[in-house]
Automatic annotation (TrEMBL):
It is found in: Cell membrane. Residues 17-178 form the Cytochrome b561 bacterial/Ni-hydrogenase domain. This is Cytochrome B561. It comes from the Bacteria. It comes from Skermanella stibiiresistens SB22. It holds the Pfam family Ni_hydr_CYTB. One of its GO terms (cellular component) is plasma membrane. InterPro entries: Cyt_b561_bac/Ni-Hgenase (IPR011577), Di-haem_cyt_TM (IPR016174), Hydrogenase_cytochrome (IPR051542). It is a multi-pass membrane protein. The keyword Magnesium does not apply.
Amino acid sequence: MDRAGPLPSAAPPTVMVWDPVVRIFHWTVAAGCVANLFIVEDGDLAHLVIGYAVAAVLVVRLIWGFVGTPHARFSDFVPGVRQLADYVKLLVQGREPRLLGHNPAAAVMMMVLMALLAAVSVTGWMATLDAFWGVEWVEELHEFTADAILWLALLHAAAAIYESRRHHENLVWSMVTGRKRA
């Protein structure tokens, strides 16, 4: 029996963008920050272990930014000032292009978050040393950077949702699978 009607449309082709190192870094940092900010007690062994794990994946990601797959390399996505300004202008006009890798605004956010992760890691480590035990500015800087990471991560998540809707693709899922629409 012959059935009339449209054939189901095939899913659009996808390409691998985010390699396993990038995805493991992303989700390890996300889980580590949530755990250290909301679940474990400051100064507990679990807090320290999670902090060192985040610092370790940050070091791996920094190295991977120079030797990794094409979309993982800093040379692929870190924008110049002019490129960032042009992108932001188009974004404000609602005409920003869809990019396969990080867009310039996301790249800047990623670099700022990585710098804050480095700062929170270093100040957390410093707080464990006798030389800085109880030193107020170290503790305050550690707390400030942790809070800044939280707020910027929330902005990052909101931007990913906005971009997903704007460009009709699930960016959160692409960070799970590594694949984006071609």
